[in-house]
Design brief:
Length: about 500
C-alpha cells in the first residue's frame, strides 16, 4: 500500500484540472506500481470510499477533479519498456499510465527509434493513462485517428483491487453479452451498449458497436470503469519528411472549398487541417500589434479583414516535398490565396515550430482576453464548444453557428479541426447578461448537432461539466445501458463519482 496522505497534506493542484473546477478529497496516494495501485483500490473498497483517478490533470471537463474519498494519482508510474517490432510493420511499447506524452516521444527519439506514437493532444503533459481514459485526439486525428486505434492491450484494476488484462481480439458474444473472468473466479457480466456511434469524432460516453473488442469499453470511459495502470501501445513508422503551411483565403466559403479539396486529393498526405475564421485572424492581428515579436504572430498577416485561414501539416518523402508544396500552392491559389503574403510554409524544424506556435497563439489570446474580463466579472468564463458533425453537415453547422451568434450580437471566434468537422466556437461574453445568453446558445448548438447525428464532445470528454449534454445525446435508455456496464465493473459506483453520470 502506498503512503496515504490526509486531507491537509494534499496539494491544491491535485484537487483541480484545467477546467479550474475545484474538488476535495479525504485521502490521496501516489502508487508506483500496478500492485500498489491495486492495494490502494482494495483499501478504498474496504472503507467504501469514492475513488478519483488522476494523471496529468490536463483535461478541461473536470474528470480528474475529486468528489471526496480517495484520490489516486498515477504520476509516479512512469516506466517505459522496450520497443518491439511487429510482423505488420508497426511496433509496440509497454508504458505505465503516468508516462507523459512528451516523455514517451522524447525517449523514442533518444533511442533513435524509427517509430512514433501518433495521437497528439495539444497538451504534451498529458499522461498515457489519461489519454486512454479520454480517448484523446488532436489535430493529426485527421490522418491517424484517436488514441483508441493505438492501444493493443491494457492492464486494468477494478474498484475492488482485482487486476485484469484486456487485449485486442477479446470480444463480446454475438448477442452483445460479455463476460470478464477475474482471478478469484468471479466474473463481470453485462452487455455492450447498442446506441449508435456518431459518424464523426466522438469522446462522449462508452464505446458501442457490433463485433467490438472489450478493451474499447474501457478506452474513453474516463476513469469510471477501472484504473488503467499500464498499456501496450502501437507505434507506427515515423514520416520521412514533414512540412506545414498556412493559407489565407478571401472568405469562409473559399476556406471550406479548400478543405473539401484537401480531403479529396489523396495524392497529398495531409495529416491535419485547421481553421481560423475572419474574427480569429483579426484577433491574431491585434495580438501582433499589442505584443510585437513576443506574440508569435508574424508581421505579414494579410490586411483583408474578411480573410480566413487554413493551416495544414503534410507528410511526404524528401524528394516529394517540392511537388507537394507546388500542388498545394496551385490549389490554394485557384481559391484566392494568390498574393505572396497569403501562403506561408515551414520546411525546416525552426520554420515548422514558428508556424506551430502561430497556430497555438489563438487559444492563448482567447484565454488572456477572458482573464482580463474576469477581473471585472469573476464568475464569467469563455464558452467553448467541442462538437463535431458528419461530413455532409459541415457547411450547414457553420452557417448555423454564425447566424445565431450574429443575431445575438455576441463576440466570438471559430477555429479548430475543420478536417474532422470539429470546430471550436469560443463565445467571448463581455458581461454577465451575455454569458447567460451564450449558455443558452450553447444548448441550442448541442441540440442542433445531435439532430445532425453528431457528437456533443468530440475530444475533451464529458467529465463532470457536460453530463447534461451526454444525457441529451444518448437519452435515458442510452444512459441506462452505460449504467449496466458500470454496474458490472464497479458495482458500488465508487469510481469517478460525478463523472458521466
Amino acid at each position: 500500500m502506498p503512503r496515504l496522505l490526509g486531507n491537509s497534506e494534499i496539494g491544491a493542484d491535485f484537487l483541480r484540472d484545467e477546467s479550474r473546477m475545484e474538488g476535495r478529497a479525504e485521502f490521496a496516494c501516489f502508487p508506483s506500481s500496478s500492485a500498489e495501485a491495486a492495494s490502494a483500490l482494495s483499501f478504498a473498497s474496504g472503507k467504501n470510499l469514492k475513488v478519483t483517478i488522476s494523471g496529468g490533470r490536463t483535461g478541461i471537463a473536470g474528470g480528474a477533479v475529486p468528489d471526496g474519498g480517495l484520490l489516486i494519482s498515477l504520476t509516479r508510474m512512469q516506466k517505459i519498456g522496450q520497443v518491439t517490432e511487429q510482423p505488420d510493420g508497426t511496433a509496440t511499447v509497454i508504458c505505465e499510465s503516468g508516462v507523459l506524452l512528451s516523455e514517451l516521444q522524447n525517449i523514442l527519439l533518444q533511442r533513435k527509434c524509427k517509430y512514433f506514437f501518433p495521437p497528439d493532444p495539444t497538451e504534451t503533459s498529458a499522461t498515457v493513462g489519461g489519454m486512454i481514459a479520454c480517448n484523446a485526439s488532436g489535430a493529426h486525428t485527421f490522418k491517424y485517428g484517436p488514441t483508441r486505434k493505438y492501444v493493443k492491450s491494457i492492464t486494468a484494476i477494478l474498484s475492488n483491487g482485482e487486476i485484469v488484462k484486456l487485449s485486442r481480439g477479446q470480444k463480446a458474444n454475438p448477442d452483445g453479452s460479455f463476460t470478464v473472468r477475474l482471478s478469484d473466479g468471479s466474473t463481470c457480466e453485462s452487455r455492450i451498449p447498442n446506441f449508435p456511434q456518431p459518424a464523426t469524432k466522438n469522446a462522449a460516453g462508452y464505446y458501442s458497436g457490433t463485433d467490438m473488442d472489450l478493451i474499447d469499453l474501457l478506452i474513453g470511459s474516463e476513469g469510471t470503469l477501472a484504473l488503467i495502470s499500464e498499456a501496450e501501445l502501437v507505434l507506427v513508422t515515423r514520416p520521412e519528411f514533414e512540412f506545414n503551411a498556412m493559407f489565407f483565403l478571401p472568405n469562409e466559403s473559399s476556406s471550406l472549398s479548400l478543405t473539401r479539396k484537401l480531403r479529396e486529393d489523396r495524392g497529398i498526405e495531409v495529416t491535419a487541417i485547421e481553421y481560423f475564421d475572419p474574427a480569429a485572424v483579426e484577433m491574431l492581428r491585434q495580438r501582433r500589434l499589442s505584443m510585437g515579436q513576443a506574440s508569435a504572430v508574424p508581421p505579414c498577416l494579410p490586411e483583408d479583414k474578411a480573410c480566413a485561414g487554413i493551416y495544414i501539416d503534410v507528410t511526404c518523402t524528401k524528394e516529394g516535398a517540392a511537388s507537394a508544396a507546388l500542388k498545394l500552392k496551385e490549389i490554394a491559389g485557384d481559391l484566392g490565396a494568390a498574393s505572396p503574403l497569403a501562403i506561408w510554409a515551414g520546411f525546416d524544424k525552426d520554420e515548422r515550430e514558428r508556424l506551430r506556435k502561430f497556430r497555438h497563439a489563438l487559444p492563448e489570446t482567447v484565454n488572456t482576453l477572458i482573464s482580463e474580463r474576469r477581473k471585472t466579472y469573476p464568475g464569467m468564463t469563455k464558452l467553448g464548444t467541442d462538437m463535431a458533425v458528419p461530413d455532409e453537415f459541415l457547411e450547414e453547422i457553420m452557417n448555423f453557428y454564425r447566424k445565431e451568434l450574429d443575431a445575438q450580437n455576441l463576440e466570438y471566434v471559430i477555429f479548430g479541426h475543420i478536417g474532422n468537422n470539429h470546430l471550436h466556437v469560443n463565445i467571448l461574453p463581455r458581461n454577465p447578461d451575455e454569458y447567460l445568453l451564450g449558455k443558452k446558445l450553447y444548448m441550442k448548438f448541442a441540440e442542433t448537432v445531435i439532430r445532425m447525428k453528431g457528437s456533443v464532445s468530440a475530444e475533451h470528454g464529458v467529465g463532470k461539466l457536460k453530463k447534461n449534454f451526454l444525457a441529451m445525446m444518448l437519452g435515458e435508455d442510452g444512459l441506462e445501458q452505460m449504467r449496466a456496464v458500470k454496474r458490472a465493473f464497479d458495482p458500488d459506483f465508487r469510481l469517478g463519482t460525478g463523472t458521466l453520470f
